[in-house]
From TrEMBL:
Pfam families: Fer4_5 (PF12801), Fer4_7 (PF12838). One of its GO terms (molecular function) is metal ion binding. This is Putative ferredoxin-type protein. The keyword Magnesium does not apply. It comes from the Bacteria. SUPFAM superfamilies: 4Fe-4S ferredoxins. The chain crosses the membrane at residues 40-58, 104-124, 171-189. Keywords: 4Fe-4S, Electron transport, Iron, Iron-sulfur, Membrane, Metal-binding, Transmembrane, Transmembrane helix, Transport. PANTHER family: FERREDOXIN-TYPE PROTEIN NAPH. Residues 215-244, 245-271, 335-366, 371-403, 419-447, 456-488 form the 4Fe-4S ferredoxin-type domain. It comes from Parabacteroides distasonis (strain ATCC 8503 / DSM 20701 / CIP 104284 / JCM 5825 / NCTC 11152). The keyword Membrane applies.
Length: 494
């Protein structure tokens, strides 16, 4: 019964989480956006004390239920393992914990976070890893299916569905997502939860807490006949049936072992106090625990430190031919506060990229910010009335912002390159940038001050410009826009 409840909850949460990355209408996020905020590492980075406390309490009460119910990457591995189990049953076996690798990866994660190597932090985050898989591999299939339905609906004079553009926002990020998918698929197919108990930093942290969980699977030595059926069905490889012991730091509380035991020797019950001999046997683990606490302290300190610190071309040109300008400072969304805050909190889960209806956000290819989103205006611009990215970000990298505040937040400023402007290259009037500027920061003035009838060129008021990119997007110059947005290290109010 308990296993069925766990499976039901896991399927529901996994489906809802996946829909967050697949939905391009924004409707799902209005109802299910809270799911992203209940993930462990995003909540930790956002210093969401409430969520982190709830997850830790759940772990202390029930064991690593986060890993088996809430974490989408964990459930994804369970799905793969379940499919593999259809071909070969009773395929697992007990293996000792690889503590040096587990705590070593946690140490690397903490060092990367302290050093500001956001790409490595993002690579190790389980929620971010699944987000990249869903948004880069699953979302295109979902969109293709939608476009197929839109095609057939249009033939039937129905507009229930509408087509959406399908394009790879970053080849590098797509490659990382594909490699991650293949590696996790193979590991889960062969060995179940190997990734969770060797590489995942969240699994290591919660595994330490789970050692002290109130409820846990317990082997009744009197009933157990040593058949090993529980161990052969344990995807975490944490049951030593010969010695009648379970490594609770690796147990993900899937409860499969209880379901498989034919003698009822396994039960999910409150833990008992250890005898003196059992405490003596556990003392060699004390050094490992001290190391863990040291790592955890560093992580908590670093988190607190980080905390303080629709397409149209105007009928002039095909925007697909534009090249991305070489910006000295990347542009990050309104609500990010600063480039430092954004890179320090972002786990590159791609949720904001998935919901960006204007196709402005895309993963960075810069090694220091690899896979973390940045803004570019070849396919659209950041509309002042849209705040979707701030509504869905679970880590605090993009903080919730109102439409009014967004319209007054300067994330960058426009720069005019006169050599590229069609006024100079083609000797024609344009004015596209002025017409589409929402803050009236661009005015067209006579190219020749002494001749009011001469061609008009843009003049930018950098105090009014908010860096939305409308001017850059609508500029007809090719291959580079004659006007582009340069990002700001720190955002300010205009």
């Amino acid at each position: 019964m308990l296993r069925k409840i766990r499976l039901t909850l896991a399927v529901i949460i996994f489906t809802m989480t996946t829909l967050l990355f697949l939905d391009f209408t924004g409707v799902t996020h209005c109802w299910l956006g809270w799911i992203a905020k209940m993930q462990f590492l995003p909540a930790l980075l956002a210093v969401n004390v409430g969520v982190v406390s709830v997850l830790l309490v759940l772990t202390l009460l029930f064991g690593r239920v986060y890993c088996s119910v809430i974490c989408p990457l964990g459930v994804f591995q369970d799905v793969v393992s379940w499919i593999a189990g259809k071909r070969k049953k009773n395929r697992f076996s007990y293996s000792p914990a690889v503590s040096w690798l587990r705590y070593g990866m946690l140490g690397i994660f903490i060092i990367a976070f302290l050093a500001g190597i956001g790409s490595l932090v993002a690579l190790l985050d389980p929620y971010g890893a699944y987000g990249r898989i869903a948004s880069n591999l699953f979302a295109p299939l979902y969109q293709w299916g939608n476009n197929l339905l839109a095609y057939w609906a249009e033939r039937a004079d129905s507009y229930v569905f509408y087509s959406v553009d399908m394009w790879i926002k970053s080849v590098a990020t797509f490659g990382v997502a594909l490699v991650t998918f293949v590696v996790l698929f193979l590991l889960a197919w062969r060995n179940g939860r190997t990734y969770c108990n060797t590489i995942c930093p969240v699994g290591t942290v919660l595994g330490f807490v789970a050692r002290f969980s109130f409820l846990r699977p317990v082997i009744d030595v009197e009933k157990c006949n040593g058949c090993g059926l529980c161990a052969r069905n344990c995807k975490a490889a944490c049951i030593d049936s010969k010695n009648h012991s379970i490594d609770y730091s690796r147990c993900v509380t899937c409860l499969d072992c209880i379901d498989k035991c034919k003698r009822g020797a396994l039960t999910y019950v409150p833990r008992k106090r250890k005898t003196e001999s059992e405490r003596e046997a556990d003392r060699p683990e004390e050094n490992t625990r001290r190391n863990f606490l040291t790592f955890t302290g560093l992580l908590a300190t670093s988190v607190l430190k980080a905390q303080s610190g629709v397409n149209a071309d105007g009928g002039l040109a095909d925007i697909a031919d534009k090249l991305t300008p070489d910006r000295m400072t990347p542009i990050v969304p309104p609500g990010a506060l600063s480039l430092r805050n954004f890179t320090g909190h972002c786990t590159a889960c791609q949720l904001c990229v998935s919901v960006c209806s204007n196709q402005v956000l895309r993963p960075s290819t810069d090694l220091k910010k690899f896979m973390q989103p940045e803004m570019s205006y070849e396919r659209g611009y950041c509309r002042p009335e849209c705040t979707k990215c701030s509504e869905v970000c679970p880590t605090g990298a993009i903080q919730l912002i109102t439409k009014a505040d967004k319209s007054a937040t300067q994330i960058g400023h426009a720069v005019w390159i006169k050599e590229n402007c069609v006024v100079n290259t083609d000797e024609v009037n344009c004015g596209n940038c002025e017409r589409h500027c929402p803050t009236k920061a661009i005015q067209m003035v006579a190219k020749d001050p002494n001749d009011p009838k001469s061609l008009k060129v843009p003049v930018i008021d950098t105090e009014l410009c908010i860096g939305c990119g409308a001017c850059e997007y609508y500029c007809p110059s090719r291959p580079l826009s004659a006007i582009y947005v340069e990002g700001h290290e720190r955002h300010r109010t205009v």
